[in-house]
Write a structure and sequence with these properties.
By secondary structure, the chain is an alpha/beta fold. It has four domains: about 5-110 and about 245-315, 3-Layer(bba) Sandwich (FAD/NAD(P)-binding domain); about 125-240, FAD/NAD(P)-binding domain; about 335-445, FAD/NAD(P)-binding domain; about 450-545, Rhodanese-like domain (Oxidized Rhodanese, domain 1, 3-Layer(aba) Sandwich), CATH 3.40.250.10. It is about 25% helix and about 25% strand. The chain contains 15 helices and 32 strands. The strands form nine sheets. It has a five-stranded parallel beta sheet with strand order 5-2-1-9-20. α13 (about 475) links the parallel β29 (about 465-470) and β30. The radius of gyration is 27 Å and the shape is globular.
Length: about 550
């Protein structure tokens, strides 16, 4: 009888175990799990803090008993694997002080990732600082909340988990401060997209501190000191500055490691040691777009990898194709999602890229309840290769990023986005979906119908002598305007072209970029030199409101 041991449960390990059982009924399958719970919804943990998920048991997806009854899996929680002997093909674990050694024919490592804890002065003595990776972590946080009834909390790190924790602590009635070392929250997003989430956090009463890190804890964690010397009190602190692969067991077994200590695997998930495989947050994957090594700690890839490694062990060839890092987060009434690479990463890698920002409604604008979606798509300006996308809005964001993620995975390009067919009825979408519209805007650039500049290029163009032409209406200008801009409403532009100079460079803008594109085409065909401000006033207002005039 073949014997397969899996180290670590949750997404990768349990997906592998259940798939293996469906393929190999006669195999002996043992799962060693270090913690007390082998299958839990770690992505749901923050929502229990606020009470949005009201029952703790809802977080526990499966129990060892249920897994045995259905799959005849030998699940052993609270069994920490201490060592692997590849020559003898054994693992040694400890359970309540007693050591146990088991042999294996195949071994799957799914140890996951652990919270990265930076070396901060006073952190070792802090009594109110926590991380959130599993149910025991959650229990510690909830015990702290119940014991001290915190009034002030700090979240160090404004990534996806940090944002979720800030939201749910605030929903619980606690004053929350977020500290982020990067210049903006949600570093995986580009600045102009992340700012919508940052503004939402501030609007909901969360204090946001960026370009700063915590350098010391005082008074057993009750005082946090920032880089600039600022000190403030905290009753509860959540460290959410990232994760690192839990690869010490693999290293001890002589398995080769790679990027930031991640476990190296081939395209069948086999490590450098024969008959030992690895999946999940601990492994190095290929970014499917750049083909460079990456660490992508997300539930969807881990589940997929668990299933695929089981197939490979069972003799069904499944290739490890890598991941593109598709993710989403809710911040109060705002949703932000991304897929692929961001513009910053691409430019740092020396890629020639173009980007379009579109502002559309999540469903037909005339149907009640329509809300804005700001969508950014990044692509190769010649081939149209899709590199990534980001979106923010109240609703409908998930659908659009999922579609573009699918397009990237399927090898589609910018040229294909206008061709995508979406279900349409007024409550659900528009006849021209936001993804279609982004495709049209990108095509206009690639085919030379439009020349655009980005929000961060505007001041440079104006300094070089360009004139900003705003084609919004007078009533729109009452809510705010660009300083020193020339205003000619689009509907008047044909009749007022004599006010413009064909020797002058113009940057044209409206609210979203759609009317300004119409104006750009009109002026270009009349001999004027014009570039369109991508994202237009709405995007610029979000990123640089201090540069605008209020009437």
């Amino acid at each position: 009888m073949e014997k397969i041991i899996i180290v670590g449960g949750v997404a990768g390990g349990m997906s592998a175990a259940t798939r293996l059982r469906r393929l190999k009924e006669e195999a002996e399958i043992i799962i060693f799990e270090k913690g007390p719970y082998v299958s839990f919804a770690n992505c749901g943990l923050p929502y229990y803090v606020s009470g949005e998920i009201s029952e703790r048991d809802k977080l526990l997806v499966q129990t060892p008993e249920a897994l045995y009854d259905r799959f005849r899996l030998d699940v052993r929680p609270e069994h920490e694997v201490l060592s692997i002997n590849p020559e003898e093909k054994t693992v040694t674990a400890v359970h309540h002080g007693k050591q146990i050694t088991e042999s294996y024919d195949k071994l799957i490592l799914s140890p996951g990732a652990k919270a990265f804890i930076p070396p901060v002065e006073g952190l070792d003595e802090a009594e109110n600082v926590y991380t959130l990776r599993n149910v025991p972590d959650l229990d510690k946080i909830m015990n702290r909340i119940e014991q001290v009834d915190p009034k002030e909390a700090v979240v160090v790190g404004a990534g996806f988990i940090g944002i979720e924790m800030a939201e749910n602590l605030k929903y619980r009635g606690i004053d929350v401060t977020i500290i982020e070392k990067a210049p903006h929250v949600l570093p995986p997003l580009d600045e102009e997209m992340a700012v919508f989430v940052q503004n939402e956090l501030k609007d909901k009463g969360v204090k946001v501190i960026t370009s700063q890190s915590a350098v010391a804890f005082k008074e057993k964690g009750r005082i946090i000191v920032l880089e600039d010397g600022t000190e403030f009190k905290t009753d509860l602190t959540i460290m959410s500055v990232g994760v690192e692969p839990e690869s010490s067991l693999a290293e001890q077994a002589g398995i080769k490691l790679g990027l930031r200590g991640g476990i190296l695997v081939d395209d069948t998930y086999q490590t450098s040691v024969e008959d030992i495989y690895a999946v999940g947050d601990a492994i190095v994957v290929k970014n499917q777009i750049s083909q460079e090594d990456a660490l992508i700690s997300l539930a969807s890839p881990a589940n997929r990898q668990g299933r695929q490694v089981a197939d490979n062990i069972a003799g069904i060839c499944r290739e490890n194709k890598g991941s593109i890092g598709t993710a989403i987060v809710r911040a109060f009434d705002m949703t932000a999602a991304s897929t692929g690479l961001n513009e910053r990463q691409l430019r740092q890698a020396g890629k020639d890229v173009a980007a379009v920002h579109t502002l559309s409604k999540d469903h037909a604008g005339y149907y009640p309840g329509a809300t804005d979606i700001t969508l950014k798509v990044i692509f190769d300006p010649v081939s149209g290769t899709l590199y990534g996308a980001q979106a923010v809005g109240v609703k409908g964001v998930d659908k659009r990023i999922d579609v573009i993620a699918t397009a990237i995975k399927g090898g589609l390009t910018i040229f294909d986005l206008p061709e995508l067919e979406f279900t349409y009825a007024p409550p659900f979408g528009s006849a021209k979906d936001p993804v279609n519209m982004a495709g049209y805007a990108a095509l206009n650039i690639i085919e030379g119908l439009s020349d655009s500049i980005q929000w961060h290029e505007l001041n440079r163009e104006l300094e070089k002598g360009a004139v900003l032409l705003d084609v919004r209406t007078e009533s729109e200008l009452e809510a705010g305007r660009f300083p020193n801009a020339l205003n000619i409403p689009l509907n008047d532009l044909r009749d007022r072209m004599d006010e413009l100079d064909k020797e002058q460079e113009y940057i044209i803008s409206c609210r979203s970029g759609q009317r300004s594109y119409i104006g750009e085409r009109l002026l270009k065909q009349s001999g004027f030199k014009v570039k369109n401000l991508d994202g237009a006033y709405a995007l610029y207002q979000a990123v640089r409101p201090e540069e605008l005039e209020c009437v």
